[in-house]
Design a protein that fits this description.
By secondary structure, this protein is mainly α. 56% of the residues lie in helices and 0% in strands. α1 crosses α2.
């Protein structure tokens, strides 16, 4: 029987960061409010990301900067309403 090995914490952080950055981009840049159903998932991943980051001696500011890097520079999509 094959035992499941725990994932590398850096890989978990990488995966969480990918999800959280896309979530932040959609909310901040696109103003997407249709993401509410995944709010609990986002919260759990964000908490895990912060906890793992702190175990690597990263500050809360470092972690937030990682999440929002390049997002503030993106232009919002303009949606034309009929």
């Amino acid at each position: 029987m094959t035992a499941l090995s725990p994932m590398d914490p850096k890989e978990v952080m990488r995966q969480n960061l990918t999800f959280l950055r896309e979530y932040a981009r959609r909310v901040v840049v696109e103003g997407d409010d249709a993401l509410l159903p995944i709010e609990e998932v986002k919260d759990a991943l964000a908490q895990e990301f912060m906890t793992l980051g702190q175990s690597f001696h990263l500050t809360e500011r470092d972690l937030v900067m990682m999440m929002f890097r390049d997002i503030w520079n993106q232009q919002p999509r303009i949606v034309k309403e009929d």
